[in-house]
Every structure is written in structure tokens, then in C-alpha cells.
Amino acid sequence: GIINFDLKVEAFKDNIHSANSGVFADTFTVATDLISRLEDKSTYLMKDEFQVDIPDYRVEEMKEMAKRQRRSDELPCLKVIQSIPTLLTGDTIDQNYHQIANYNWKSVLSVIGANGLPDCAISGNCLRKQTTLTISIRTPPTADVDKMFERIKELMTTDVPFNYQVSIERPDIAAGWNAKALSEKVDTALNDAVKSSYGTSPVFQGCGGAIPFAGILGEKFPKADFLVTGSSLPDTNAHGPNENLDLPSTRNLTTALAFLFRNVAS
Questions:
Q1: Is residue 115 pLDDT above 90, yes or no?
Q2: Contact, 46 vs 38, CB < 8 A?
Q3: For residue 130, what pLDDT is reported?
Q4: Which of 79, 102, 226, 259 has its CA 20 to 30 A from that of 190?
Q5: Which InterPro entries match (predicted)?
């Protein structure tokens, strides 16, 4: 799921001389203070009240994936960088598991835009009258996003430092979705199909993506088994430059789906 909004912090009617910085706080600093009310800086995730319990079957699925995948190895980093400190457990499999769990099931906040800040080359010595930051929060699949957003607004607009004016604007909220565990019949059919096509058993992964019809279908058909899949590799670069598909991988997926439909039908 996702919660996006603009956090606007206003202090003055106009920009004022920088000499007043010893009298008044910078609006950007106040904005970051408000953000800190939501985050746990020891984990770089949002605080516990914004997290959820992970279903046991998802925990087991992520542990299986952790034996095969190291999430950070897929990312185009500028240099060799470390993961969030709490992920460095010393055990590679355990570290992989926590990376996958954070990716799939943890609420995380990012700042994705800003207004009120001039380009560095034309910035001047002044206290700016306002700062607006666009906040994007990835929420767990089972989170109550409406309840979470109300709590976020309460934390960010109550007891504001220096009595500055704070507003929450342009909210965009969408719930995530978590499929129920597969039935034994479909699970067996899927395992056989994937082994026939790929030569190995399948693993399951959550994915950040605005696919609201999956949740709608889940509510409409609560007893149905759901398999949401697609052809993608680490360098597929979805929604970016040179988005691409690996043809051999796509053929394997198509074959696996054909075997799956045959197995379920029989």
C-alpha cells in the first residue's frame, strides 16, 4: 500500500534576513523534526505503531527466498554500500531474510519532492518563509492505511515546534493486499509446474505496485486461489529507460503457466 502527501511548514509572510536564524528555526529543520516523529532512526523504518504482524506462511516463504536471493545485490548502487545497520546480523541467510522482510512487509518513509527550496546555484542567505516536502510511505499489505494516515496527521500537526503552521496537503492513499495461502491442490500443481519448466521449486515475493484490481478481486472472490506473476529480471528496469524482457525467462514462465493450468484442470 501507499500513503503520499505534502507536508507544508510555514513560518513567515516572506523570506527574512539570515541574521534572524539565531531567533527563528529554519522551516526545513522543523519539517525534519516532524518526520522524526514517525521514524525509528535505529532501524531507518517507521516506528512500531505503523508496522504489522507478518503472517506465518509469509515468514516461511521469505526464509526460503533468503536462501536464494540477496536483495541488495540487485540494486544499481554507485559503489559498495551497506544496508540498513540492523540488517547486518552477521549471518548471510538471516540478513537476506530481513532485507526481503523490510522490502515486503515494513512501513518505510521517503521524501520524494520539495518546494520552497531554490536550486543550490541561486540560493541566498535568508530564512525561507516555508518548506514543503512530499512524503511517500510504503505500507505493509495488511495495514489499515486510513487509520495510519489519521495517526500520521495527528503526530505531525500537534504540538508543532515554535508554533509554526503545518498543513497536510494532496493526500493519495491506497491499501495493499495480501493473498491467502494457496490451497494444497494449487500449491502442489504450482510446484510441479515450476519444477517442470525451471527445474526448481517456486518462491514467493511481495511487490510494491499499484495494482488495485488484485485487492478488488480478492474481496470479490475470498475463497479463490490467487497467483499474481510476471516476467522480470533484476535488470528489467520496469518503468525506466530501456525497459526490457528476457525472452528465455519469459518462455519459461509461459511454459510453467501452461503446466500449472494443466495440473489444476486434471
A1: yes
A2: yes
A3: 96
A4: 102
A5: Cyt/Met_Dipeptidase
